[in-house]
Every structure is written in structure tokens, then in C-alpha cells.
Design goal:
alpha/beta; 8-stranded mixed sheet; 3-stranded mixed sheet; 11 strands; 20% strand
């Protein structure tokens, strides 16, 4: 690792007050040393050298925050309207390992809002499209596409080792399974849901009340989205807020929406924070 640090120092340049290293240099060193690209990026950051792909993150997240992201494993459960945008932004910000869990395939009515859905991949698994997309955005990441639906039987196994889970589901029965599995495993969850021009986001730490605890009763499996649908911008806005919550939890920067629900009204452009 000392040799790697020295090679990184030789290959870096100084921009403003920061030492940076290009993707080409990182890839060449990964190939030369026979190690994953992510290990090279982590070695650079440990030496105070910023890979250029993360240069615009550092002013906000710091080198320590970027290291935390690269070392984290996040499970995104659902890869549709919310999940596609979530996976894209997590990949760009530099979350090191992504478990993408969804057993669904694309259909034509996904084209209006699901980021990875195209006219050419109708009928193909959503997680396959997500993995292919991330491979050309950030090849340093470990992306694990899991082409199954989350169930009570497989939840513990699929979420094993995750530092955080993100709820990008479209039904409450699966959401309950996710919340309970994360509670058992001590995994924080960032919740999100959408319908029409509305969305909601909240962060649930182990031991915190969930939405189902707060409502104290049975809730419908599906909500307003059945009637109102989801235009493209509603999942994009809500997913971005979910990723912001995820980054805050991983890096310990900022205050997460713990035991709270942020209600998003895009019709009136109003945001309201509700305590659970």
C-alpha cells in the first residue's frame, strides 16, 4: 500500500488547494497492482488525494465523508420510479457497494418516470438495466443486482451486511417486511413513497417507530398512486431527498429526518415536517 500511495502522489496534480488524481491514473494503477479500482480510490483519499470524479463532493462531504461512502454497503429495495433515480444518484456520489433488489421487469407504462426504462428494454429485469447503467457511470463500485422480490423468507439473507436500506417500494405489505427485517438486523431505513404530485420521506433508525406503528392499524397496500399515477418529476424529487438522507446517515453530516416524515406537496410547492 505504501508503493500505491507513492504512485498516486506521482500521478496526481494540484488544482487550487487540493491534490487530485484522474480516473485514467486510478484505472492504470488498479490494473498494474491487480486490485479493485475502489481500493485505489480509497488509498488516494486516505493519502489526502481526491479522485477527480468526487472532486465536487469534497467541499460538502469532506474526504472523511467520501471515504465513509466508498466503504458503505447500501441496499436499495425497489428499482422502479423511486429506485432508479436513487440508484443513479448513489452511484454518482460514490456509495461503494449497492445491493439492488427487485424482481420486476419493465413495461411500457414505466417509460414516463422510471429512469432506466427505455423502448429497447421493455420486458427485461429492472435490476439488470440498473447494473448496466452503473457500470458505465462508476466502475469502481460493486453492484449486486438481485432479481427477486423481497419476502419474509429472504429478507434477512438479502439485507445481510448492509449499513443502510432504502425503501423504494410501491406497496405496504413489502414495506412492512423491509421495516421488520431492518429492525431485527439493526439497519437504518430511509423511507420514501409517492403519489401524483405528493411524496414523503423519513428515516427510521433501529428502535424508532415506523409509519405502521404510528398509524396503529391496518393500512391499504397501495395508496393514491393507483388513481393519480406518478409523473416523472415526483419520483425524481422524492428520490433525491431520500439519497440526501442516506448520505447524512452514512457520513454523519447533518440531521436526518429521524422519527419524522417530510411531506412534499409539489402542487402547492409546500414542504411540511410531521413528527411520528
Amino acid at each position: 500500500m505504501k508503493d500505491l500511495a507513492q504512485a498516486l502522489l506521482k500521478g496526481c496534480t494540484k488544482e487550487k488547494d487540493r491534490q487530485v488524481v484522474s480516473l485514467d491514473v486510478c484505472k492504470a494503477l488498479a490494473e498494474e497492482k491487480g486490485i479493485p479500482l475502489r481500493d485505489v480510490e480509497l488509498a488516494a483519499l486516505d493519502a489526502g488525494i481526491v479522485p477527480k470524479r468526487y472532486e465536487r463532493n469534497i467541499g460538502t462531504l469532506g474526504i472523511a465523508g467520501q471515504i465513509s461512502l466508498l466503504r458503505s454497503r447500501v441496499a436499495v429495495v425497489g428499482c422502479g420510479g423511486l429506485g432508479g433515480w436513487i440508484v443513479e444518484v448513489l452511484g454518482r456520489v460514490g456509495v461503494g457497494e449497492l445491493l439492488i433488489i427487485d424482481g420486476d421487469t419493465f413495461s411500457e407504462n414505466n417509460l414516463n418516470r422510471q429512469l432506466f426504462c427505455t423502448e429497447k428494454n421493455i420486458g427485461l429485469p429492472k435490476v439488470q438495466a440498473a447494473a448496466e447503467r452503473l457500470a458505465v457511470i462508476n466502475s469502481a463500485l460493486l453492484v449486486v443486482p438481485i432479481n427477486v422480490l423481497l419476502t419474509e423468507e429472504n429478507a434477512n439473507r438479502l439485507l445481510e451486511g448492509a449499513n443502510l436500506a432504502i425503501d423504494a417500494l410501491d406497496n405496504n405489505s413489502s414495506r412492512k417486511v423491509l421495516f421488520e427485517a431492518c429492525r431485527r438486523s439493526g439497519i437504518p431505513v430511509v423511507h420514501g413513497a409517492i403519489g401524483g404530485l405528493s411524496g414523503e420521506v423519513g428515516t427510521i433508525f433501529p428502535g424508532d417507530p415506523t409509519l405502521f406503528d404510528a398509524l396503529k392499524g391496518e393500512v391499504p397496500d397501495r395508496g393514491a398512486e393507483i388513481v393519480l399515477g406518478n409523473p416523472s418529476f415526483t419520483p425524481a424529487v422524492t428520490a433525491a431527498l431520500q439519497v440526501a438522507e442516506a448520505v447524512k446517515v452514512i457520513t454523519n453530516i447533518g440531521t436526518p429526518l429521524r422519527a419524522s416524515l417530510l411531506w412534499i406537496d409539489l402542487e402547492e410547492m409546500e414542504f411540511q415536517k410531521l413528527r411520528l
